[in-house]
């Protein structure tokens, strides 16, 4: 199989033209499975060509494939070719098919017609992803088969490479979570463009690839709460929620359906058994540690997970990628939340929550008005930059009052917390006495603490003060390097 990104073949020979014409006239599968639910659609208004490919899977096989296609002849011929290439074949072989395979089958395509093959491949892969997500695929468990959560960045690519090098049979799965034209497609790991890039890369590496379209779930369970929590004056951690409630559930279900033993990701985290069972453990590289982002994973899931990069440093990961000539070796790090990539949180809120942003007052603790802002949602506790208010001293956001749309400014000294209150969403995987430290923000050093609970609430007594814990952020509860629980920060006092 060749990659989607290979140079377009040219239709030149008489044989190629004959193959193309035959596909156009014979068209096995044309109009078949019209009502079938696992149908992917690609193309549409912007290009005028529309390809719909439907699949009926049974067990490990793509039993039947149907299509409808409108627009240019190439789109139709490529859709028909997809039926010929996929029908009756093992699902994991079909998952390796790319546009170049389809283009080759029709006898080659000129660059202007390559589009038809790309649409057919995309529609096919959307259909396969739907069948997988709907539970229409069932492989018996195969020893040595693993699924890699494949964003197409350097980390997940190296995770896949290491697994393949150690003799594992690797299946790549990419999640499509968000489609907003304003998001930078180069920097987002989960946009439609990122999915195409990841699929092309997986095929280049010879891996079967599946796309799970979780856009609706992501919007309902991650983005909507993200906006609501900002309205409520909080600074949420959508990645923690996404990992805990969306990503890993879907990926583990796919792992099971594809007959894989384990799900591997490129997260920098480790697993450890403390005698009571598996827990997450911080990565050996403290600068890259991502256990905080995984703090809400159910311990029961951990048995099916592996983090091949947990004991490596990022520089080592890049070295491995370079030595293996992986085409992503120099790909830059993703910095932002995936759905605000290239926009930043403030612009994202301006774009998606404009109606709830209203002008309001900056005030001091004693209620003195010192300036105006564009909406309390755009500020976070501990923020210093971008306030646009001259106070005569370095001013920080020390609190927010969402009801009155006020942002309270003060000095850095006012931001030191000794007691951090937790929401009722506290989860503990071990006895409360095992909570010995807390990480209050991603990329922040853990601080020693004890967990205290009474009938009404729970809080952390910190052994040393923390600067600006933001309500809404996750408190990742630690015993040494082990994650023993998590909660959302409700508030704090000195
Ligand atoms: N859209 C996605 N589909 C599938 N898996 C994903 C996706 N986004 C992230 N992941 C998985 O989560 C891991 C950590 O994601 P994170 O957003 O931190 O990206 P990253 O550190 O830039 O990793 P990478 O270099 O692999 O993109 C990735 O290595 C990958 O295994």
Structural descriptors:
six-stranded antiparallel beta barrel, binds adenosine-5'-triphosphate, Rossmann fold, disordered N terminus, alpha+beta, globular, SH3 type barrels, 494 residues, 12 helices, Sufe protein. Chain: A
Counted by DSSP, the helix tally is 12
What proportion of the residues is helical, as a percent range?
Answer: 25-40%
Total tally of structural domains: 4
Instruction: Tell me the overall shape.
Output: globular
CA-based gyration radius: 26 Å
Major sheet: order of its strands?
16-20-19-18-21-22
Q: What percent strand? A: 25-35%
Termini separation comes to: 62 Å
Describe the structure.
It is a single chain. The chain has 494 residues and is α+β, with helices and mostly antiparallel strands. The chain folds into four domains: 14-133, Sufe protein. Chain: A (Alpha-Beta Complex), CATH 3.90.1010.10; 145-266 and 308-340, 3-Layer(aba) Sandwich (Rossmann fold); 357-410, SH3 type barrels (Roll); 416-493, Translation factors (Elongation Factor Tu (Ef-tu), domain 3, Beta Barrel), CATH 2.40.30.10. It is built from twelve helices and 22 strands. The chain has helices at 14-26, 73-86, 91-94, 99-105, 114-133, 154-165, 192-204, 215-231, 238-257, 299-302, 314-323, 345-352, and strands at 39-43, 50-58, 61-70, 89-90, 145-149, 169-176, 209-213, 262-264, 269-273, 278-282, 305-306, 360-364, 369-373, 396-401, 406-410, 416-422, 427-428, 437-439, 447-453, 458-467, 474-479, 482-493. The strands form four sheets. A six-stranded antiparallel β-barrel has the order 16-20-19-18-21-22. Helix 4 (99-105) crosses helix 5 and helix 8 (215-231) packs antiparallel against helix 9. The longest helix is centred in the N-terminal third of the chain and has 20 residues, at 114-133. The termini are far apart. The model is unreliable at 1-9 (pLDDT under 50). Adenosine-5'-triphosphate binds next to helix 6 and strand 6. Residues 149-151, 153-156, 174-175, 189-190, 265-267, 290, 333-334 line the site of adenosine-5'-triphosphate.
